[in-house]
Amino acid sequence: MRKVSGVLALLCAAMLAGCGGGEGGGAGDSITVGFSQVGAESEWRTANTRSVKEALAPPEFNLRFSDAQQKQENQIKALRSFIAQGVDVIAFSPVVETGWDTVLQEAKAAGIPVVLTDRAVKVSDESLYATFIGSDFVEEGRRAARWVIEDSEGKPGPIRIVELQGTVGSAPANDRMRGFKEVIGEDDRFVIVRSQSGDFTRAKGKEVMEAFLKAEGGNIDVLFAHNDDMAIGAIQAIEEAGLKPGTDIRIVSIDGVRGAFEAMKAGKLNATVECNPLLGPQLAQLIRDVHAGREVPRRVVVEEGVFTQDQAEAELPNRKY
Ligand code: GZL
Ligand code: ZN
Question: Which PROSITE patterns did the record assign (predicted)?
Answer without folding.
Answer: PROKAR_LIPOPROTEIN
